[in-house]
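Still learning. Show one?

>
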Amino acid sequence: MRSVARYSRCPVQKRLSFKEALARQGETPAPVPVPSGSPVSFYLTARDVQRPVDAIRVLASCGLGLRRGHAVFGRLFTSAGTAVELIVADGRDVVAELAMLGVSARPLKRPDVEVATVRKKVGLSQAEFATRFGLELATIQNWEQGRNRPDPAAMILLKIIDQNPGAVDAALAG
């Protein structure tokens, strides 16, 4: 039976882990704080950002991470704005902190609309509403009778219909 020798790339002297090396210097790394709170979506726009690294650190403290925070800032400077989901206990604190750093943060809220109210505002029957906006009649009936609720995408469509039905007409006309 032949034995196989195992070779290690490490030198004979034992290497210390990073934590052990810091402990030898008398320093202990601070524990990484775990963000607490609820996920909240924000729309970020950049104004006059003087300290982007500090703004990225604020995003990282809200659960975004440094790498993703850097990517978000890349998008902020190449486009009008970007949406992010942050874990925050109180969204006003993050909005104020980012505002001091030159980043405008606006919380995004999912619309909550009553289907029957929107349909009556447009002045259409259920069948006409479904036909005009490319929806199923049964879906409209189920929403209005409370058997089902519109999903988030449908809620956004209904909010747009409520505010500007002509925009949906133009989009559907192609």
Remarks:
- The two ends are 77 Å apart (CA to CA).
- Confidence is low (pLDDT under 50) at residues 1-13.
- The chain is about 50% helix and 10% strand.
